[in-house]
Amino acid sequence: MRIRAAVIAKAGGVFQVRDLELEEPRETEVLVRVAGTGVCHTDLAAARGFLPVMFPAVLGHEGAGVVERTGLRVTRVRPGDSVVLTWGSCGACGPCRRGRPAYCDRFFQYNFTGRRPDGTTPLRGGVGEVSGVFFGQSSWASHVVADERNVVPVSSHLPLEKLGPLGCGVMTGAGAVVCALRPEPGSSLAVFGAGAVGLSAVMAAALSGCDPLIAVDLVPERLEMARELGATHTVQAGKEDPVRTIRSICRGGVDYSLECVGHPEVLRQAVEAIRPLGVCGLVGMASPGTRAPLDMNTLLSGRTVRGIVEGDAVPDLLIPRMLAWYEAGKFPFDKLLSLYPLNDITQAEEDMKAGRTVKPVLIP
Ligand SMILES: [Zn+2]
Ligand SMILES: [Zn+2]
Questions:
Q1: Beta-sheet pairing, 359-363 with 337-341
Q2: Which protein residues have their CB within 5 A of the ion that is ligand 1?
Q3: Is the model's pLDDT at 166 over the cut of 80?
Q4: Do 205 and 259 share a domain, yes or no?
Q5: Which of 83, 211, 323, 347 shows a CA-CA span of 20 to 30 A to 28?
């Protein structure tokens, strides 16, 4: 069928919205009409060539929409069902069988290449094949074909066009708190970087009863938003030394910190801000080969640094949980979103890079 999608021809290229041809879903796949699809920093990293995506490609991995058709062996959803699209995993390897799909042995093949694990793609354009399975979905498009493992059914009375970011960015921040760090009520937590991921972490930490709950960022407007979403303290990096300020708020440092920036200096701060036996979660993605200057003696005194992919989440469990919080008015993730028509994708990208919008959502 004919679809509209934002195509990028090569690493470092520009996005062009045009018509493409999408194959029918295979036996275990579904065809989804996209209602809305977020823009995540991983998309922009892929567009710059930091991931092994085969170009030309359609990116986008925070889609939500309505199932239109299903393959013969699909059992999870039916035509007409509302779904959030999410990232892929094999379901068969050790980490997947232990309930840790974000650490799937084949995470790269399922998410970063833009192709199905067998190398094929359901999309073609004027010049030939177009990668159409980025993170199992390539959702900057009017329609996508995705494996049923990549869709999570949701209630149809929710604002579907806004739900896509639950499948990656919001999941990454919220999951880092409730699935990975699991702070006890009353424990202290500092979030470095108040973008979509960091602010989602702030909301989840507030729900978990973290106090003090400290947000660190360069931009005053984002810190103000962090306060609105539950931060008890904010630190404007660049104006004050985050480590010193955090230690003055919490004697000896915080119990937990989260690095949501992907910057070596910020990781150093996030580690030095925790107390002995504290845990620093690394969520931010740095460019390949980035090294961080950690004082080995800081680590020696019982501190832990651990990487966290996709919030350690099992999407089928965390997405419904986040939606229940949202419906109870305790997780207003939609405050992070700004909606743009798919045609304005370049504007959305510029606004995101300039910090004018936290999380753009494209409407096909
Ligand atoms: Zn796996
Ligand atoms: Zn993402």
A1: parallel
A2: 89-90, 93, 96, 104
A3: yes
A4: yes
A5: 323
